From TrEMBL:
Entries under HAMAP family matching the protein: MenA_1 (MF_01937)
Keyword RNA-binding included in the entry's annotation: no
Protein name: 1,4-dihydroxy-2-naphthoate octaprenyltransferase
NCBIfam families: menA, PRK06080.1-3
Gene3D superfamilies to which the protein is assigned, alphabetical: UbiA prenyltransferase (1.10.357.140)
Reaction(s) this enzyme catalyzes, per UniProt: an all-trans-polyprenyl diphosphate + 1,4-dihydroxy-2-naphthoate + H(+) = a 2-demethylmenaquinol + CO2 + diphosphate
Gene it is expressed from: menA
GO MF term set: 1,4-dihydroxy-2-naphthoate polyprenyltransferase activity
Protein family membership: Belongs to the MenA family. Type 1 subfamily.
Record-listed E.C. numbers: 2.5.1.74
Superkingdom, natural source: Bacteria
């Protein structure tokens, strides 16, 4: 049986910046308009964390029962390694998604009930990423989903529930966060091209091939810093986002150096750290400049 530490590793803690960063960015965007509502920000953070953990366990379950993780290159997978039964991992996924649903329900009812529709779409997107008979993550749409759900929806949703409107600065932050989040997944799928090709998991990286996937990773890391220059129109403080540039350069280094397999894990880690740093710096900057 899996230990507590292995269950925590199975939740993929390195992906948590993808959940934290959009809430931080959305709260900064809200603060720049009318002032942040901290208890709503905390509820949004709970939703985001619960959803990403649920997605990770659901991915572990679905990939495990399909045999995709039988020859795993990256971090531990509970089902693929045989440390936990598929039913137990599926239960963990459902429980995490249920927590996110309850917190999201509270947030929507206290802010704008129509957001329940968005929440339902998010839950469906979380499960069918690798679940169901035709998972969209196996058809090259994973990066698009990450951009939409952990970029546009998460950032703008966080901003909206706090001030009941969005603005262009919020959109810019949402696109930047989405680009960074997609870069994390691109690095992951670049690493897994050999095994995914063998198991029929047709990710965007498999479709594009090794060379073009490395180019996509670079482009995604550049986009947020272009948006930083645009945000400087709102307030010069936004240029603080450029301080995250060294982390982005470091994140892309293994990709530029044609590293493969386990040597690409630092690219995932540092892409996530760059995402978090850029989001915090940009959010604080907008708050100060309001």
């Amino acid at each position: 049986m899996a230990t507590a530490a292995q269950w925590i590793e199975g939740a993929r803690p390195r992906t948590l910046p993808n959940a934290i960063a959009p809430v931080v960015a959305g709260t900064g965007a809200a603060a720049a308009i009318d002032g942040a509502v901290w208890w709503k920000a905390l509820l949004a953070l709970g939703v985001s964390l619960a959803l990403i953990i649920g997605v990770n366990y659901a991915n572990d379950y679905s990939d495990g029962i399909r045999g995709t993780d039988d020859e795993r290159v990256g971090p531990l997978r509970l089902v693929g390694s045989g440390l936990a039964s598929p039913g137990a991992v599926r239960g963990a996924a459902v429980a995490s998604l249920a927590v996110g649903a309850v917190l999201g329900l509270i947030l929507a009812v206290l802010s704008a009930p129509w957001l329940l529709l968005i929440g339902a779409v998010c839950l469906a997107g979380a499960w069918f990423y690798t679940g169901g008979s035709k998972p969209y993550g196996y058809s090259g749409f994973g990066e698009i989903a990450v951009f939409v759900f952990f970029g546009l929806v998460a950032v703008l949703g966080t901003q909206y529930v706090q001030v009941l409107r969005i603005d262009w600065a919020g959109v810019a932050l949402a696109v930047g966060v989405g680009a960074f989040s997609s870069a994390v997944l691109v690095a992951n799928n670049l690493r897994d091209i050999p095994t995914d090709s063998e198991t029929g998991k047709t990710t965007l990286a498999v479709k594009l091939g090794d060379t073009r996937t490395r180019t996509v990773h670079l482009v995604l890391l550049v986009v947020p810093f272009v948006l930083t220059l645009a945000l400087a129109v709102r307030t010069p403080w936004a240029l603080a986002g450029l301080l995250a540039l060294p982390l982005a350069v470091r994140a892309n280094a293994p990709v530029r150096a044609d590293r493969a397999g386990l040597e690409l894990i630092p690219a995932l880690r540092d892409s996530g750290l760059a995402l978090l740093a850029w989001s915090v710096l940009s959010a604080v900057a907008l708050g100060l400049g309001s």
